[in-house]
């Protein structure tokens, strides 16, 4: 099974971001990819096996991220790890500690410990702007940058359990790195959209998909969008560039929902778009200069929206 090449592990390989990362790694030719999934034989992972190079250089491993031995056997022998998997609650959680926070932190801790034991060269941990933006003390009007962390008590007060889980897991990653010397880089993407590879609509894509549901009024908030293909490029950049260190925000310039809808109307005039836009006061703007300085670039939002919609049509989610 193992072809000659550098072995890297991608956790949660069947997910939206991880699928594109696996595709990119395989396309490079030099990487042998181990992908952790819950069930390697499941139809929802078939798209990975169909990728070019998968037959020779992709191994899907049944892995439980909450079981250290399971994680350790997946990572042993790898020189790099991309920790992408994390629980995303589909609705308000009835037991956030068990459903969201515990798994996010324990999964991350298990991955880091396994990486340290396996003498992995670098771990790239996918966090989120959720670990950045929920901070009432950040100066109003100042773009959020890598120095800003979500306030844990504020997250608890607002019952933002996903924000809290990402914040705790990312902080744990840096604490573990400081303690052991493990090379850890973290990555905080904004709203990730773009074409689906997996046959289900993931939580970030649902935000766009819901604009096609003939809603009367939506909030005209600022959306900080990043294309999933550009996210995959960024993750590989953070792994391959020796000078990459610390955390990196990944976004593109913000766009109002009304402007997004106008782009979609021009591309696809027949769908039932929202009719009214309710103005909201919002200051979620991010600085992504640090990532750009490494050489990262992003595609136009029109290309992202077109890619998203074409994939929704291809999977039968839209006519």
From TrEMBL:
Q: Which SUPFAM superfamilies match?
A: NAD(P)-binding Rossmann-fold domains
Q: In the UniProt record, does the keyword Oxidoreductase occur?
A: yes
Is Oxidoreductase one of the keywords UniProt gives this record? Answer: yes
Keywords on this record?
Oxidoreductase
Tell me one GO molecular function of this protein: oxidoreductase activity
Q: Which Gene3D superfamilies match?
A: NAD(P)-binding Rossmann-like Domain
Domain (NAD-dependent epimerase/dehydratase): residue spans on this chain: 8-245
Write the protein's name. Answer: NAD-dependent epimerase/dehydratase domain-containing protein
Species of origin reads: Urochloa decumbens
